[in-house]
Design a protein that fits this description.
The complex is a heterotrimer of chains A (480), B (102) and C (624). Helix content of chain A is 73%, strand content 3%. Chain A has a two-stranded antiparallel sheet with strand order 1-2. In chain A, a hairpin with a 4-residue loop joins strand 1 and strand 2. Chain A is mainly α. Chain B is built from 3 helices and no strands. In chain B, helix 1 packs antiparallel against helix 2 and helix 2 packs antiparallel against helix 3. By secondary structure, chain C is mainly alpha-helical. The longest helix of chain C is centred in the last third of the chain and has 48 residues. Chains in contact: A-C, B-C. The interface between A and C is large, with 63 and 63 residues.
């Protein structure tokens, strides 16, 4: 069964989406079905993770079938140790988001749940495909459900948001497509496991821009503010927690292994971009006027931090980056879900000016905002601290200045996150906070608590991720 | 070989074609435009047949017959449309029929 | 021994988890008892571990246990390792011992608060974090504990969530400590790069023994120590931290957490000895802090803030001790200070509790008549603080002062600062005592004083304060440097002093310190009891706390704010936002222009067609 597991992880949600699209059921039951599919998906991931041999740097649980042979394009899926963790984070976060959508009862449920499941399948496909064209297909397939999810269920300015989002990402993916075609024709195959290293800066640039837009890294984050603010909360959550990670994964799986020489030449510039994202995001988060603003700019900062780790060129950096990808996916999804819950309760868009004093009489909400907020600012002993520590220790070996910038950003993170926490929970009761803003309901707790437990569990043992990926040895073996 | 030289055919065809093209561009009545299109097609037919005879081969004539068939079907559809428009009292003026404007 | 150490660490964590998850299912009273009993259990485990260690030969007293690898990458492995040795066991005893007294006290103090459970959960979390800090077997766990105590301190300072000043103080404390964490993390990165590990043994063996790297490592660690222990220049958070409930001030901001910086220097003394300049800097900053805090304490009017500044000043002494290499003396003072400073805070807490939460000493004046027990224990605490024989402070503080004399010229300068500090201590401690406890009670105090079932406070508050008072009297007799010194002997394998004063230097320093301390008390008596000399006008510089807050406001907060605002208006809106507007604008405009061609006139299309054919024909002709 092993070789089918990866394929099941991709196909199961897609099949679920098709069933949801045609099944003659009410929206409520469609939602329950989608929730069930997400849970089964998590179950399959656990099976896959338990059958994986973490000591080996080879592709595992792989499946290969020729697709159109004259171009040597194939259906080739499988996982490396680092993909296992990223896929796990994705299915958990997508599951939480889908169940949240079910819980709040999104209208036009048939389309909504079908799209969420489709997105799940596409995301898993991105993280597991080992063929460049297949990768590209999944990379683009993520766009379609997102386009509709934002455009239909988003806020008032959703049309502009979708347009911005699509224009940006399509520009990036077209550049990547050009790079993929040239690279594939040159190599005579599109199979990633058969790739040789390449020296072409132009091809590298095509990939880099696409991934930098997706992640996003400064200054390619123009789509971020409006999209994250207008999308439904759970979609923003997976957008920043999971879909954004596709960009970072692309750097990890494609850009860095295939273009080692180019990366070495451009390392300074890319590290500078990453550090700029980190500081720039932290500083803007410090003044953001709303909850989502803080979370999304902190996502920008985190993408920068992970970028620092990826381009540190040592095991500390790589393992830290993988760990931090997992951490930030969980943290960001939780934070956006919390933002959505706060917004629903207060009928606001999370403006700090209207919020405040929500800790009083709402212990569950207060505890969860506090715990997730504290974890997100990387308090020592949390899993985010472990990730940041590894990344900064790694990039320190590339040059102490990067780590110093990272350390400054840690202080800034404390400043903006505490500001957000106290603006929501503490201070005077905000004008929008009334008696009707209840504490978290059981259903919401059932969604958030597992996410928080994942974070706390990882805090007790971050080595589950960082010790079960192979760092630099793995990266070096990804291309011939 | 009997008859006039090939250039006379070409000149006649050019005159016919120009007449048709000018008709398409200048007139507004769809009926006339359709007529002009037919003239252009027949100008082309004339050339096809003339060159076919010049080279002593039949493929030009076969083409001409195909063009005639196309022209006939076109007239069926076009005239049908025009008659339908006339029945519905739509003004027969292509400048007024601008739904396709970008 | 190792098992006991684990139990000691995990009991408070269990309590924190139970209280958080249990929520309202745990009765209020029970929450306090759970927290108290687990902390006492931790103390019992520490005692067991201590006697176990005592029974072994000095070379066998160090035990490390690793439960699992916490974090690994490449060839680096950082385990979840506990270290029980002579230094950490002393700290465990202090933390869990004083901690259980203060938590027990809180049961009475917090009775009737809205959210007692949250308070006790945080207290347990703090005890766990502090124990993790002192028991951690590598620098990464030390840093983890370091950050966790900062977190629990943040939570407890901001316990009164609807007080904006409390929330602001909590954030300030956290951010300042995050700064210290950051410099420490940088030092750790250097250590990873140069030694390949973070466990103490490897690090001490492989760290560079001199040069810039050694200095930078020590400097980074010192940054963390300064922030945590509220020493110049990272000290401004401590007085504001008094916004937390009084037991919090006693436990975190007097007895345990703020002294962690001293523990860090003692624990990592090989790294500091590799960088003597940085170690001297630590001593110098300690001396500067003890003077500055003493001066500011002279003019404060909030009872807790006076004690907070005295804490800063006393930790200054410890930094002097650790900085000049008298490690056992620094740890000894850390211990006695935990007794008498917790005593002072808790006695002040009885006062505050009985007088509707008031903290202004002008309103509290003269309450000694109403509260004789509190008056006596406060007097004991003050005498111990000033260092009058035979109270605890005398033994420990004087041995630090004496050690300065054995440290050359630099030590002599610091010695002068220390004895001046002793004088200042006498003045501010007894200014507080005389104002609050002698004379006639103010009308306000009479009106608002209420007894608790005929006593000055709940029984849980009285017995704990009494215990601490006994410790403040006898605690110092543990070591009397010229005659017996069991603590120094005990610590010798781990933290052997590099500076040891001669007996003459001990006697000389004690004489000076006692005389100047008594002189300080005399001055306070003249000014506030006899009132034969008018109290001088308070100096604005002292009242404004040497303008540090204003400095940080400009340098850090406002500059970040301005930078953030600047980036928002200069880059984010015009460039990033502008880019997308430009793209969509360009697309829109060009499509508007192009759509002009699509005018719906068949003849235009036909003309374009004909024109196109003509152009193509021309091109083909020209190309021939």
């Amino acid at each position: 069964m092993n070789q089918w597991l990866t394929m099941i992880l991709i196909v199961l949600p897609v099949a679920g989406a098709l069933l949801v699209a045609v099944a003659p059921l009410s929206a409520y039951w469609l939602g329950s079905f989608a929730a069930l599919v997400s849970l089964v998906e998590i179950g399959f991931w656990i099976t896959a993770a338990s059958r994986f041999h973490y000591g080996s740097p080879r592709l595992q649980l792989a499946q290969h079938a020729s697709w159109f042979s004259d171009l040597h394009v194939s259906w080739h899926v499988g996982m490396y140790a680092f993909s296992v963790w990223i896929v796990g984070m994705s299915v958990v976060c997508m599951g939480a988001a889908t169940i949240y959508g079910w819980w709040v009862g999104r209208d036009r449920g048939r389309a909504y749940f079908a799209l969420m499941l489709l997105l799940t399948g596409a995301v898993v496909g991105v993280f597991t495909s080992q063929d460049l064209l297949l990768f590209y297909a999944f990379f683009e397939a993520m766009l379609i459900p997102l386009y509709v999810l934002i455009g239909v269920w988003g806020g008032a300015d959703r049309l502009r948001a979708t347009l911005t989002f699509v224009v940006y990402t399509v520009v990036g993916s077209l550049l990547m497509l050009a790079s993929i075609v040239v690279l594939g024709l040159r190599e005579g195959t599109f199979d990633l496991t058969q790739m040789h290293t390449s020296h072409s800066s132009l091809l590298f640039l095509g990939f880099l821009v696409a991934f930098a837009i997706k992640s996003p890294l400064f200054p390619f984050h123009g789509w971020l503010p409006i999209t994250y603010r207008e999308a439904p909360a759970e979609v923003s959550g997976v957008l920043s927690g999971v879909v954004g990670k596709a960009g970072l994964y692309g750097l990890l799986r494609i850009a860095i292994p295939i273009f080692p020489a180019v990366v070495a030449d451009w390392r300074g510039l890319i590290l500078a971009l990453s550090a700029a994202s980190l500081l720039y995001g932290s500083l803007l988060a410090f003044r953001a006027p709303d909850f989502r603003g803080v979370v999304m700019y902190s996502s920008l900062a985190q993408a920068g931090l992970i970028g620092l780790g990826l381009f540190a060129n040592n095991s500390l950096g790589f393992d830290g980056a993988v760990l931090q990808i997992v951490n930030h996916g969980l943290v960001s999804t939780s934070l956006f879900l919390l933002a959505g819950m706060v917004e629903r309760r207060t009928a606001t868009r999370g403006e700090f000016a209207l919020l405040g004093g929500m800790a009083r009489g709402r212990p569950a909400l207060a505890s969860l905002v506090m715990i997730v907020g504290i974890v997100s600012l990387a308090v020592p002993l949390s899993t985010t601290f472990a990730g940041e520590f590894l990344i900064l220790a790694g990039v320190f070996q590339q040059g102490w200045a990067w780590a110093v910038l990272g350390a400054i950003a840690i202080v800034l993170a404390a400043m903006y996150m505490l500001r957000a926490i106290s603006a929501v929970l503490h201070q005077d009761t905000g004008s929008a906070v009334s008696e009707r803003a209840t504490d978290l309901r059981l259903g919401e707790l059932a969604i958030l608590v597992p996410l928080v437990l994942c974070l706390l569990g990882l805090s007790a043992w971050p080595n589950l991720v960082s010790g079960h990926t192979l760092g630099k040895t793995q990266i070096e073996r990804l291309a011939k | 070989m009997h008859g006039p030289d090939i250039q006379w055919y070409v000149i006649l065809s050019a005159i016919l074609f120009t007449t048709g093209a000018l008709g398409v561009m200048l007139r507004r009545n769809p009926l006339i435009i359709l007529l002009s299109v037919e003239i252009m097609l027949n100008a082309a037919n004339l050339l096809l047949i003339a060159f076919s005879r010049l080279h002593g081969r039949e493929d030009g004539q076969i083409f001409a017959i195909s063009v005639m068939a196309v022209a006939a079907s076109e007239v069926v559809v076009g005239l049908g449309l025009i008659v339908a428009m006339g029945r519905r009292n739509v003004e027969l003026d292509v400048d007024k029929l601008r739904t396709l404007r970008g | 021994m190792s098992t006991a150490a684990w139990i000691c660490l995990l009991l408070p964590l269990a309590s924190a988890v139970v209280l958080t998850v249990g929520g309202t299912a745990v009765p209020r009273r029970i929450a306090g008892y759970v927290s108290t009993l687990t902390t006492m259990g931790a103390f019992a485990a520490a005692v067991v571990a201590f006697f176990d260690m005592w029974s072994k030969a000095p070379v066998e007293r160090v035990a490390t246990t690793t439960s699992w690898t916490w974090l690994a990458a490449g060839q680096y492995h950082f385990g979840l390792t506990l270290l029980a040795d002579q230094v950490s066991i002393v700290m465990m005893l202090i933390v869990s011992g004083v901690g259980s007294l203060i938590v027990a006290y809180s049961v009475g103090y917090m009775d009737g608060e809205d959210e007692e459970r949250r308070f006790f959960a945080y207290m347990s979390l703090f005890v766990f974090s502090m124990l993790l800090l002192v028991e951690g077997g590598n620098l990464l766990l030390l840093l983890a504990g370091w950050g966790m105590v900062g977190l629990s301190s943040y939570l407890l300072i901001g316990y009164y969530q609807d007080r904006p000043s409390a929330i602001a103080a909590a954030k300030k404390a956290f951010v300042m400590n995050a700064f210290g964490d950051a410099t420490m993390a940088l030092a750790l990165f250097l250590l990873i790069q140069h030694t390949g590990a973070l466990d103490y043994v490897t690090v001490f063996r492989n760290a560079p023994h001199h040069g810039a790297i050694a200095n930078l490592i020590a400097l980074g660690l010192l940054g963390g120590a300064l922030a945590k222990s509220a020493q110049i220049p990272l000290h401004t958070w401590l007085p504001d931290a008094m916004e937390g409930p009084t037991p919090v001030s006693a436990l975190i901001h007097a007895a345990t957490m703020v002294t962690a910086g001293v523990y860090l220097i003692v624990r990592c003394h090989p790294l500091f000895e590799n960088a003597w300049a940085v170690q001297d800097l630590a001593a110098g900053l300690g001396a500067a802090t003890l003077l500055m805090a003493g001066l500011i304490a002279l003019v404060q009017t909030d009872i807790k803030r006076v004690i907070a500044y005295s804490t800063m000043s006393q930790i200054g002494y410890m930094f002097v001790g650790a900085g000049i290499g008298a490690y056992p003396n620094a740890l000894f003072h850390l211990m006695t200070h935990a007794f008498f400073k917790a005593l002072l805070f808790l006695a002040a807490g009885i006062l505050i509790h009985a007088l509707t939460g008031e903290q202004d000493i002008r309103k509290l004046a003269g309450v000694g008549k109403l509260m004789p027990f509190t008056k006596w224990v406060f007097l004991i605490g003050s005498l111990a603080l000033v260092g009058i024989f035979p109270f605890a402070g005398f033994f420990s503080k004087d041995s630090i002062i004496a050690a300065c004399l054995a440290h050359g010229t630099y030590g002599a300068i610091i010695w002068v600062a220390c004895v001046i500090g002793a004088f200042l201590t006498g003045v501010y401690a007894f200014r507080l005592y005389f104002i609050v406890f002698t004379g006639e009670p103010t009308a306000w105090a009479r009106e608002h004083f209420h007894k608790h079932h005929g006593k000055e406070g709940p029984i849980s508050m009285l017995w704990t304060v009494g215990t601490l008072a006994v410790l403040a009297v006898i605690g110092g007799w543990l070591q009397f440097a010229p005659i017996w010194h069991p603590l120094t002997t005990w610590l010798d394998p781990i933290a052997a002093p590099i500076t040891e004063p001669s007996n003459f230097q001990e006697w000389l320093s004690s004489a000076f310190a006692i005389v100047l301390g008594l002189a300080g008390i005399g001055v306070a008596y003249v000014l506030y009891v006899a009132r034969s000399v008018p109290v001088p006008q308070a100096v604005t510089l002292f009242e404004k706390k040497f303008y540090w807050d204003e400095l940080y406001d400009v340098v850090w907060y406002r500059s970040s704010d301005a930078l953030s605002r600047g980036l928002g208006t200069i880059i984010e809106l015009p460039l990033i936002g502008g880019a997308i507007t430009a793209v969509s604008g360009l697309t829109g405009a060009s499509s508007r222009e192009l759509s002009m061609a699509q005018n719906g006139l068949v003849r235009t299309y036909a003309l374009a067609l004909a024109g196109g054919v003509a152009v193509l024909a021309l091109i083909f002709l020209a190309a021939r």
